Amino acid sequence: MFQKALKLTIIFLIIIGFAGCNSNQEPVRDEGDEEVQPQSKLGFDVDTIKTGTGDLQITFIGHGTLMLEWAGKVIQVDPWTKFADYNQLPKGDLVLVTHEHRDHLDPQAIEQTRKDDTAIVYTQACVEKMPGGIVMQNGQTKTVKGIQIEAVPAYNIVHMRPSGPPYHAQGVGNGYVITLGDKRVYVAGDTENTPEMKALKNIDIAFLPMNTPYTMTPEMVADAARTFRPKILYPYHYGDTDTSIIVTLLQNEKDLDVRIRNLK
Ligand SMILES: [Zn+2]
Q: From ligand 1's centre to the CA of 236, what distance in Å?
């Protein structure tokens, strides 16, 4: 009897030992039906998130640039040739451009990802640089390629250029809430923690920009996240900002999964 107990204790200690060896791996928090499966696509990290209609794959291309794949559709968000040769990536069924600045609207990247039936959604200020897209005004909702897209205002409230005007004027840029099956994904664009952002409801995944002076401080990102409460928050467009600050600010928000990915 004593020997059996000893054996069990030894087995238990071995199991604990193995678990300890894995402790330096990136923690993967259990989110019920959402999970992280880090993998690589042409050198980029990818997260896979379950939706009611198959997996959503998010490829983190860099800065404000993402690729979403869901239900056989490819959505390129602010594609930029600085980070990727789009001839090497799947062609976009839908291209979302948040605003006309060069780190978001890159006509060369759009040409590379374009096929005959690609739909491009962007803002009025983008038309001059690249005609042929579908313009969405702040607050509008459209269904494009079978995907519902809501345009959320993106603008600065406090961060102004030394010459006076805001880095991003109200009424010009968009963030987008895209509905993919039972998941709502918010890509905020270049913005601060506006009342319109804070009023968003039922956001599953949010990408919030976090570099000053152009967008938000970590404190502003934390304020927005605590208010509209996305289930998963990816700080993005963060440049040289210390990402550990936002992790610390939100560490007690147990239902808010902050994920840091390579989105400098
Ligand atoms: Zn930007």
A: 10
Q: Give the N- to C-terminal CA distance of the chain in Å, as an integer.
A: 59
Q: Could you tell me the distance, in angstroms and rounded to a whole number, from the CA of residue 41 to the centre of ligand 1? A: 24
Residue with tokens 């004027």, as numbered in its chain: 169
For tokens 């690249």, the residue is 130
Residue 31 DSSP SS3: strand
**How many angstroms separate the CA atoms of 224 and 192, rounded?**
9
> pLDDT at position 110, please?
98
- In this structure, the dihedral spanned by the alpha carbons of residues 123, 73, 261 and 170, taken in order and rounded to 10 degrees, is 10
For 82, residues 6+ apart whose C-beta sits below 8 A from its C-beta are 62, 63, 103, 106
- Rg of the chain, C-alpha, whole Å: 21
Measure 105 CA to ligand 1 centroid, in angstroms: 10
Tokens linked to 73: 């559709």
Compute the half-sphere exposure of residue 152: CA atoms within 13 Å on the CB side of its CA. Answer: 26
Instruction: Give residues with Cβ within 8 angstroms of 42, minimum separation 6.
Output: 84, 88, 89
Q: What pLDDT is stored for residue 42 in this prediction?
A: 79
Expressed in angstroms and rounded, the spacing between residue 191 Cα and the centre of ligand 1 is 9
Could you give the 3-state DSSP secondary structure of residue 22? helix
- Give pLDDT, residue 43: 87
CA–centroid distance, 202 to ligand 1, in Å, is 25
Domains and their CATH numbers in the chain: 40-258 (3.60.15.10)
Task: Judge whether 236 and 63 are in contact, CB under 8 Å.
Answer: yes
Residue (of 244, 216, 239, 193) closest to 62 by Cα position: 239
- Measuring CA to CA, which residue among 118, 116, 146, 147 is closest to residue 133? 118
What CA–CA distance (Å, rounded) separates 51 from 114? 26
Quote the pLDDT of residue 41.
66
